[in-house]
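In response to reviewer comment 3 from the previous cycle, which asked for concrete evidence that the modeling workflow produces usable outputs, we include below a single protein chain processed end to end. The sequence was submitted unchanged, and the resulting structure tokens are shown without manual editing.
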Amino acid sequence: MKRSLRCLSVCILLSCFFTINVYAAGETIDCGADIIPIPVETAKFMHTAYILLKIGAPLILVVMGIADFGRAVFSSSEDDIKKKQNRFIKRVISAVLVFLVLSIVEFIFTLLTNAGFTDATVCIDAILNGNF
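The workflow returned the following structure tokens.
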């Protein structure tokens, strides 16, 4: 748990540093009248992180599941196989939740765009679809 929190804090710090440097570059995406423009490099970073989460979660699930079940089968312990099976089920649930959250965010943004909230459409399109 500490390791994942440490990794998350490093990612946040790096993204903040990355964003500060991008503001100096000056290229931004205009998101509407009352919304602060987003730097293009920040939108690219957010799009890349979005795609990596959407593709990476199932990929990591498969790799970790194969590794866990492989170790459990080679140990030939019934209790070990049961523990690995429970861990795999928890990983499947977490990967499905990540995928569902990302899909729900896409759906909400699509609903807002279709409902007439078009101020942030350009920013949403840049982050979700990569149209800069």
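The chain has a mean pLDDT of 77. We consider this sufficient to address the reviewer's concern, and the full set will be provided in the supplementary archive.
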